[in-house]
Design goal:
It contains twelve helices and 17 strands. The chain has three domains: 19-118, 3-Layer(aba) Sandwich (Rossmann fold); 160-278, Tetrapyrrole methylase, N-terminal domain (Cobalt-precorrin-4 Transmethylase, domain 1, 3-Layer(aba) Sandwich), CATH 3.40.1010.10; 282-413, Tetrapyrrole methylase, C-terminal domain (Methyltransferase, Cobalt-precorrin-4 Transmethylase, Domain 2). The chain is α/β, with parallel strands linked by helices. It starts with 18 loop residues before the first strand and ends in a 24-residue tail after the last helix. The protein is globular and about 75 Å long. The chain has a five-stranded parallel sheet with strand order 3-2-1-4-5, sandwiched between helices. Strands 10-9-11-8-12 form a five-stranded parallel sheet, with helices on both faces. A five-stranded mixed sheet has the order 13-14-17-15-16, with helices on both faces. The longest helix is centred in the first third of the chain and has 17 residues, at 136-152. It has helices spanning 27-38, 52-59, 88-101, 136-152, 182-190, 228-240, 259-268, 281-288, 320-325, 339-348, 378-385, 398-413; strands spanning 19-23, 42-46, 64-66, 80-83, 104-107, 120-124, 127-131, 166-171, 193-196, 213-216, 244-249, 273-276, 302-306, 329-333, 356-361, 369-374, 391-395.
Length: 437
């Protein structure tokens, strides 16, 4: 198990449906698990505590979490084992058990004692590659150069921004990691520190250099959450240390994402800020489902509403009566919890109960799921289907246009999801995202 100086043999592992054991629930596991899920692995996570992002994956049944420490026998039945704790003795015991059983194993804390290495990996379109060298930092640098070359069409040295510390607010897009902008990916590659939302494309985190500090600022619905003032303080503090900080958000930073609050806080502290727009889920998710938010002869306008506060709540700033009386396409974010009250209010305000509605879960991802019904029945349909956030709700006659597009696509290609063409296809282990954190 100890490295003997021989060159490693490079191999790509097909993990679809195979059990992968991850021991540890901190930053290393947070970076590794999304990539394993993207590969289709059946991940079992063993750790007394886990990061908010990993807890969210467990609550969504994306991983099986055993909330305890490692125990002998945990490696049984695994095809790959990742020892990711901060205790070298535990990692050594995990690796020893795997070695004894003839199971592939990776030690995150000691590469010289690891039977296998995780390469510095990257993905551009349908091309995925990994780099292994004697120095993880060098591997990451080479990976970044290759990735930049694939994205721009020419291989060029990794570009670093000169000067002091600064903050970049980067929109990660609606879920598919390929929908982040080129500029956003460049800034991630150059980052010294990344503060990542729960709703940012998590598989991008595995592309970070090994020296990049990852801070998980995930906010779980009705669960663990880092206060906004604390997030602002982290952004300012790291930048004032002369570091390049990326605040990675889902969707677009300025669409229900508190991006402007963070910009104002940084500027007030004298920290320069760059805002990199992202593809907003309010438009991209309906488009990925074949639903246009506007259509000639149907509607000339659409409205996007954050519905985390229900109609009638004194904290709401939405004029629901006016929205209900409008014929505009209505796109709702963060609305599933209050869908019964929303539908009733819209109908009472003038919307026909038969108005078509589509509810889209995991938009832009291989796990995308859509139900279409009428406004009067949508809350019951969502309940019966067991749908859970994040989801986008589209209300209006454009839903019928989307249904027609889907039917024609099915007839043409024999694929009911044919209109959705992700830029970075992967198995059903991808991670959903939306604005609103």
């Amino acid at each position: 198990m100890v490295a003997d100086g021989a060159a490693p043999y490079l191999l790509a592992l097909r993990l679809s449906g195979r059990r992968v054991l991850v021991v540890g629930g901190g930053a290393v596991a947070t970076r590794r698990v999304p990539g394993l899920l993207d590969a289709g692995a059946a991940v079992v996570l063993v750790s007394p505590g886990v990061s908010p992002s990993l807890q969210d994956l467990a609550l969504a049944d994306r991983v099986r979490w055993l909330p305890r420490g490692y125990q002998p026998g945990d490696c049984s039945g695994a095809w790959l084992v990742c020892a990711c704790t901060d205790d070298p003795a535990v990692n050594a015991a995990v690796a020893a058990e795997a070695e004894e059983a003839g199971i592939w194993s990776v030690r995150a804390d000691d590469r010289t004692a690891s039977a296998a290495w995780t390469p510095a990996s990257g993905q551009a379109g349908d091309v995925r590659f990994g780099v292994v060298s004697g120095d993880p930092l060098r591997s990451a640098g080479i990976r970044d150069q290759v990735l930049a070359g694939l994205q721009t069409g020419q291989l060029s040295p990794r570009r670093h921004r000169r000067g002091g510390g600064r903050v970049a607010l980067v929109g990660g897009g609606p879920g598919d990691p390929g929908l982040i902008t080129v500029r956003g990916r460049e800034l991630l590659a150059e980052a010294d520190v990344v503060l990542a939302d729960r709703l940012a494309p998590r598989s991008l985190l595995d592309e970070l250099g090994p020296d990049t500090e990852l801070i998980d600022v995930a906010k779980l619905p009705r669960g663990r959450a880092m206060a906004q003032d604390q997030i602002n303080a982290l952004l300012i503090g790291r930048a004032q240390q002369g570091r390049r900080v990326v605040r990675l958000k889902g969707g677009d930073p300025f669409v229900f994402g508190r991006g402007a609050e963070e910009v104002l806080a940084c500027l007030a502290a004298g920290v320069p800020v760059t805002v990199v727009p992202g593809v907003t889920s309010a438009i991209a998710v309906p488009a990925a489902a074949g639903i246009p938010v506007t259509h000639r002869g149907v509607t000339q306008e659409f409205r996007v509403v954050s519905a985390h506060i229900p109609p009638g709540d004194p904290r709401s700033t939405v004029d629901w009566a006016e929205v209900g009386a409008s014929a505009a396409t209505l796109v709702l974010l963060m609305s599933l919890e209050h869908l019964t009250a929303i539908a009733r209010t819209l109908i009472d305000s003038g919307r026909d109960s038969r108005t078509p509605v589509s509810v889209i879960v995991d938009g832009t991802l291989p796990t995308q799921h859509i139900i279409t019904t009428g406004l009067g029945a949508v809350a019951g349909a969502v309940h019966d289907a067991g749908l859970r956030p994040p989801a986008i709700v589209v209300i209006g006659e454009v839903v019928n246009v989307g249904t027609h597009i889907t039917e024609l696509s099915r007839n043409l290609l024999g694929d009911p999801q044919a209109v959705r063409v992700p830029t970075s296809p992967g198995p059903a282990g991808a991670t959903p995202t939306r604005e609103g954190q």
